[in-house]
Amino acid sequence: MQQAVIDSFYQNRNNDRAAGMAAYMKNKFSFLGLLKPERERLQLGFINQAKKTAFIDWEFVFQLWALPEREFQYLAIDYLLALQRLLHGGDIDKLKLLITTKSWWDTVDVLAGNIVGGVCVRYPELVKSQMLSWAESDNIWLVRTAILFQLKYKASTDTGVLSLIILKNNGSKEFFINKAIGWALREYSKTNKEWVKIFIENSSLQPLSVREGSKYI
């Protein structure tokens, strides 16, 4: 069934749409031209079957990641989302490899806020052993992941960890890092507006981070 879903993607490619999709992503990746609803329709049977299994086929995940068309990386992520209950702490190195390979915001943000965030809930020791380390990485996508991994935590957000990771990167000139800082603060402001307001007022953040983080304040 794995090869069947790959074949179905190729059989339904749309070269006219593919060019526009690649341009939108600054031509960093090739596309098949599959819009999300069509892609989800084509992969539905495979995803439903995968949910019945008791293991994650990492060889297949990395096979998808190696394929040139971006839709296959999206399929890999949807597969992991469907089976995220099976992820364990030891998978963090595999997730790190996905984050640092073919990196761009479209894959990294889902991996960060959904998958890595979920693993860290179940294995909180990863926050100290991995997230705080990633926050100091030379790889901007690991930094972005460290900033965003609590994105969906709401009232469970560890503000000590959030502030520490943000302040480790305060002063960065990197757009994707400053944007992530603002996004994390904006999202948490929906839960604790006063904390975010005070944090922004006392942190001398980059203008982009302040603008994004202050949206709901």
Approximate strand percentage: under 5%
Instruction: Give the oligomeric state.
Output: single chain
Structural class assignment: mainly alpha
Element-level helix/strand string: HHHHHHHHHHHHH
Which sheet architecture does the biggest sheet show?
none
Poorly predicted residue ranges: none
End-to-end gap: 49 Å
Radius of gyration: 18 Å
In short:
By secondary structure, the protein is mainly α. It has 13 helices and no strands.
Q: What can you see in these coordinates?
A:
- The protein has helices at about 1-10, 15-25, 35-50, 60-65, 70-80, 90-100, 105-120, 125-135, 140-150, 160-170, 175-190, 195-200, 205-215.
- The protein is built from 13 helices and no strands.
- The model has no long low-confidence stretch (mean pLDDT about 95).
- Helices cover about 65% and strands about 0% of the residues.
